[in-house]
Design brief:
296 residues, alpha/beta, six-stranded mixed beta sheet, five-stranded mixed beta sheet, 6 helices, 21% strand
């Protein structure tokens, strides 16, 4: 009985293994790795990832190569005798302590350099304050007299309601589109000041390579600079479990050329001036947010 159960379990495991291998064989191998992204920082992070990855591959090849060679060359069937002179050898213990420390120090150099660049907020061309609410985002272009809320697009919101009769498959970019996308210029270093009005959110656009928490009472910072030739629309979502509708606060960023961005900005300023929108803190909700302090 036990043998039959074990055999069925083994067959199921083998079938699962073949299914996984088959799916991998049909997958795009490029999809197994990190995406390089479209910003300066995302490329630097990707480069660091690949550097450390190939170092680990080299270490694995050397270590497992020596192990396999030793197992084959010095196997018992060939009459090999165990060498006990290396047991409790101080010299060997010093060597296998110094080598890993040296490798970690070498890894720390490019890692520290990348982290310093991530935190460098100098030479910023545009500041945008991002405030998270349940469940929408508010964007304020500091010093530009432009601010607006960005919420889940109406057709997606309708399709997600029970009994709406709307097939989500018929909605373009279902749950990934908003009514007012964030618009930014390409080739400009943009600093995002992140905070929240109610609970913790996280602003994340994978193609930008950056993610940061938006915490009530605090202001976090990140910066991005999209490559000049990477115009287009990029999507993300709140990456923090912020409530029951957490999955319904997408992020959409439209990257335009500087000329197109300037035209959009002037049109938006004129539109909001005509509508009488306050230059800062677009609503009474925002004014009710607690005083923010810079996070240490």
């Amino acid at each position: 009985m036990k043998n039959a159960k074990a055999r069925r379990g083994l067959q199921a495991a083998v079938a699962s293994l073949f299914a996984v291998l088959a799916s991998v064989a049909h997958a795009d191998w490029g999809g197994l790795n990190m995406h390089e992204g479209v910003t300066i920082l995302s490329r630097k992070i990707y480069g660091l990832h690949m550097t450390i990855f190939w170092w680990c591959v080299a270490i694995g090849v050397v270590v497992f190569g020596v192990m396999i060679y030793s197992l084959v060359k010095f196997r018992k069937s060939q009459g090999a005798q165990a060498d006990t002179t290396l047991v409790h050898s101080t010299k060997v213990e010093i060597i296998w302590t110094i080598i890993p420390i040296g490798i970690l120090v070498l890894m720390a150099v490019p890692t520290a350099k990348t982290l310093i660049e991530i935190e460098d907020m100098g030479n910023v061309g545009l500041n945008i304050k991002v405030t998270g609410y349940q469940w929408k985002w508010e964007y304020e272009y500091l010093g530009q007299n432009v601010s607006f809320f960005s919420t889940l697009k109406r057709d997606s919101n309708l399709a997600r309601q029970l009994g709406s009769g709307v097939d989500p498959k018929t909605v373009p970019n279902y749950l990934l589109d908003v009514d007012n996308p964030l618009v930014v210029p390409a080739g400009t270093k943009i600093r995002f000041l992140l905070t929240a009005q109610d609970v913790i959110h996280a602003w994340w656009v994978p193609a930008f390579g950056m993610k940061k928490d938006a915490i009530p009472g605090y202001i976090n910072e990140i910066w991005v600079q999209v490559d000049a030739d990477k115009l287009g629309t990029y999507r993300g979502q709140c990456a923090e479990l912020c409530g029951q509708d957490h999955g319904f606060m997408p992020i959409v960023v439209e990257v335009k050329s500087p000329a197109e961005y300037d035209a959009w900005l002037r049109a938006k300023q004129a539109e909001q001036k005509l509508a009488g929108v306050a230059p800062n803190a677009t609503s009474a909700i925002a004014s009710a947010a607690p005083a923010a302090v810079i996070q240490q």
